[in-house]
Design goal:
Low-confidence stretches: 340-347
Strand content: 15-25%
Shape: globular
Radius of gyration: 24 Å
Mean pLDDT: 85
Order of helices and strands: EHEHHEEEEHEHEHEHH
Helix content: 25-40%
């Protein structure tokens, strides 16, 4: 233009804007909506790193330079979700679902919808939306059209069917089995979490031994970002606290490294009952049997501060930002479901 301005276009993770500075930064669809169902953790990481670490350094004046992000929601941890989870203080969030919902922001824009709840009855009529639901599926539609990437009915887990209650004392003889399963990570202060998930299987007095009347409990969750040394110390300390009645479950990742890591932990827990479970199949496949029981309404949970993060991860799974708690819970369920005889202190 006639005052020396300019414009530069670049791609996420491609040509770098380093060396240029902007008064305005505009991002349009940093993830490909056509690949919404296949977006990977790597792609999310690249996009979010670009948003949080690359672009902010390219502002002429950080106090006044504005960043616009325009996108369809594709994942709980996509760039929109990532930025909103970090801070809402300096963010103006405008959300316009195709159908009126509590997600409309600002709230005053709800009056722009038609009487039957449509944002754009010409371009996005009811018949067009119904067709999109079939084409994209529940999750794709919830994200790209409703701007809330969680199926209306929930993901694999119907978390509203988990009852919050006070569990029986862990010393009771009616516990068929107690298992603390560990999903191990090894990065301090970032990345995946190390999770120790304590689950119990309770059989009321006089209940049939086939387990058909057993109650299942989520009793405790330990969740920390630790390096490998701190992680092993935590596992040993929690195992000692739980006592020898609790089975210790360990996930063995594929390859020689995973096997060696599991074996090293088993050695450190000499004197305790330890079960090593190979990680076979996808996380969704491993969680399938557990989710079926949760959805049948047979699970209860002890009230605690960790309830919120656990339920949130279960509700979004398998599209949750983290999957460590679900993975650990699935491992504990697998061990307890396969107990061949009653645990009364020794198996």
């Amino acid at each position: 233009n006639d005052v020396g301005g300019g414009r530069m276009a670049c791609t996420v993770g491609g040509m770098s804007p380093v060396g240029f500075h902007a008064h305005f930064i505009i991002i349009d669809d940093p993830l490909d909506p056509q690949q919404a169902s296949r977006v990977s953790e790597v792609e999310l990481g690249v996009a979010n790193n670009f948003m949080s670490e690359v672009l902010p350094t390219r502002k002429v004046d950080k106090d006044v330079t504005i960043t616009w992000l325009i996108m369809q929601r594709l994942h709980q941890n996509d760039p929109s979700g990532f930025l909103l989870s970090k801070s809402k203080e300096n963010i103006r969030h405008i959300c316009l679902p195709a159908e009126r919902s509590p997600k409309v922001k600002p709230v005053r824009l709800r009056r722009r919808y038609t009487e039957d709840g449509l944002l754009d009855p010409v371009r996005l009529s009811r018949s067009i939306l119904d067709e999109a639901k079939i084409d994209l599926g529940e999750y794709g539609y919830a994200g790209q059209y409703q701007q809330h990437p969680v199926p209306r009915g929930g993901g694999m887990f119907k978390t509203e069917r988990i009852e919050i209650d006070v569990p029986p004392p862990l010393t009771s003889k009616h516990w068929v089995g107690l298992c603390r399963f560990w999903d191990k990570a090894g990065t301090a202060g970032g990345g995946a979490y190390t999770v120790g998930f304590l689950m119990g299987r309770w059989r009321p007095a006089g209940a049939p031994k086939d387990g058909s009347d057993d109650n299942w409990w989520i009793l405790d969750v330990v969740r920390e970002q630790l390096d490998s040394g701190e992680r092993e110390r935590l596992i040993k300390a929690v195992t000692h606290r739980d006592g020898k009645r609790v089975i210790v479950g360990l996930e063995q990742e594929p390859g020689s490294g995973g096997k060696e890591s599991a074996q090293a932990t088993v050695k450190r827990l000499a004197g305790y009952r330890v079960r090593v479970v190979p990680a076979v199949g996808s996380k969704e496949e491993r969680a399938d049997e557990w989710s079926t029981q949760v959805n049948m309404g047979v699970f209860k949970m002890r009230e605690a501060q960790w309830n919120i993060t656990l339920v949130d991860e279960m509700r979004y799974f398998p599209f949750s930002a983290y999957k460590d708690q679900v993975d650990a819970g699935a491992g504990a369920f697998t061990i307890l479901a396969n107990l061949s005889r009653r645990v009364g202190g020794v198996t």
